[in-house]
Amino acid sequence: MPQYSLLSELERKVILFNYEKRGQKNSLLSFARLSDDDRSFISTEGDYILWELSKRKFEADEVISHSWIIMSKQNLPLILKFNADHHLRVGSLFDDKTVDGIWGLDGGILSIFFRYEQRNYYIDIIANNKRSIHSALQITDEHSVDLLKVIPLRNEKYGISLIE
Question: Whole-angstrom Cα distance, residue 13 to residue 43?
């Protein structure tokens, strides 16, 4: 099985599309079963194209201008604070525990890595065009997959965060 950290932008988008729109949440990493032809087919079909049109690229100023809440059905929500030097502070909403991580923009996808409670987290966040609740794919220790939602705690420059 290939390591998640070595996947291309297209492969990561296809995985998130499969998890978000097709409900493929029961397998390990779905790309392990997809051939190059399968990925090419998915990336050219109508549902994928419409899904991709509903997304946009993040900008660095947007990322560092405020804190973010990241959550899933399975995990406790965390607060993320991005620094201009590509360092990241991750904290729990329910205690004072914090850890450091790193972040970067890869083709407009916000990619982050941190270690929390003895586990490695790789998260790719793809911005939505129409609302400020963004989608993310989390890989834990290169084998566990989860779909996340990410909500910015915004300042006025970038608009209202939870109301369209």
Answer: 9
Among residues 145, 25, 28, 124, which one has the least CA distance to residue 75? 145
Residue 13 — φ and ψ, nearest 5°? -65, -40
Burial of 13 (0-12, 13-18, 19+ CB in 10 A): buried
The Cα 14–Cα 39 span in angstroms is 7
End-to-end C-alpha distance for the chain, whole angstroms: 40
Phi then psi for 11, rounded to 5 degrees?
Answer: -60, -40
14/42 Cα distance (integer angstroms): 7
Q: Splitting the chain (164 residues) into consecutive groups of 10 residues, what average pLDDT does each group show?
A: 63 78 56 63 78 89 90 85 95 88 93 91 90 87 81 64 38
- Full-model pTM: 0.79
Q: State the Cα–Cα distance between residues 50 and 48, nearest whole angstrom.
A: 5
Task: Return the number of other C-beta atoms located less than 10 Å from residue 40's C-beta.
Answer: 12
Tokens representing residue 49 in the block? 């194209």
Report the CATH fold assignment for 4-155: Lipocalin (2.40.128)
How many Å apart are CA 112 and CA 140, to the nearest integer?
A: 12
Which token pair is 34?
């997809």
